[in-house]
Amino acid sequence: MANRQINLQNITMKEILIAMRRLGGQVTRREISSDIRDNSTAISEQEVDKIKVSKKTGNKYKPFDYTLNYAVIYLVRTGYLAEDGHQVELTKKGRKVDLDTFDPEKDVRPFLEDNDSQELKKKNLAEIDSAKETTDEDTEEDQWRQDLLDALMKMSPKKFELFCRGLLTKMGIDVDKTIGVNYVADGGLDGFGYVRSNDYRTTRVALQAKRWQSNVPAPEIDKFRGAMDKYNAEFGIFITNSDFTRGAIKTARQGTRIITLIDGEEICDLVAKYNYYVEPVTTYRLKSFYTEKD
């Protein structure tokens, strides 16, 4: 088990550097994780999406979040990355390293496990503890997101329709008064609306919202494209409380009319952005100053 975790951390370190170069070099951990999930050839989407339930709190969490945080702190400690709050950025060393030859087992771990320096070892352990605290804090802060997604799954069809109508309105979509948004037998919504841009151009948009336990596969995107043809829509928006498979993401980007995919994480972002039946709560956590013994 330990060897598997170390191997996954090593793979993740390299994938972090690849993802950060692809994203421009300054991103959040969530953006790194999302990019790895969608694009990595070394880490599967199933590995990133895996969810467990904490025996201590009963809350759901993703083990990969811990793996990612440890990998980030190791790269920070060895000079490949720098941290600025919740942002992570590539250093000159991180930008210039040859990823074809980069090997975390040789280029990172020996500097973390230098037992000749007790002070360095203590610093490493402190930073590793800090990485775990960051993950725990992020998990606590993000618990409302999981609560929201759980609530959406439990909603009655009528209430889910109301939620979707409201969110679409907040997004600036004028739902067609005749076609509108209708609940369908497979647990989703089909709809049609209009988006007006700043230059007074109105665009026809097909809408679909589906509640899924698993990730939405590519065939569902193909079926939705057929609905777009029916209404002669210029583009489409597909919303789900879960996520989309890599195949679905690829399918949505093909053809002359791109389909915008909104997953559960983005639903949470939109709900927070528009304060849609939520309210922000400010809280404080004590830093280690209050608990450390001098």
Considering the chains and any ligands shown, give keywords for the structure.
294 residues; alpha+beta; Trna Endonuclease, Chain: A, domain 1; 2 domains; six-stranded mixed beta sheet; three-stranded antiparallel beta sheet; 11 strands; restriction endodeoxyribonuclease activity; Mrr-like_N_dom; DNA binding
Helical run tally: 13
Q: Give me the Rg, rounded.
A: 22 Å
Shape: globular
Question: What's the total count of β strands?
Answer: 11
Can you tell me the residue ranges where pLDDT is under 50 for at least 5 consecutive residues? 115-121
Q: What is the beta-strand fraction?
A: 15-25%
Order of helices and strands: HEHHEEHEEHHHHHHEEEEHEHEH
Structure class: alpha+beta
- The whole-number mean of residue pLDDT values reads 85
Distance between the termini: 36 Å
**Into how many domains do the coordinates divide?**
2
Describe the sheet with the most strands.
Answer: 6 strands, mixed
Domain Restriction endonuclease type IV Mrr: 153-270
GO molecular function, one term: restriction endodeoxyribonuclease activity
GO biological process, one term: DNA restriction-modification system
Protein name: Mrr restriction system protein
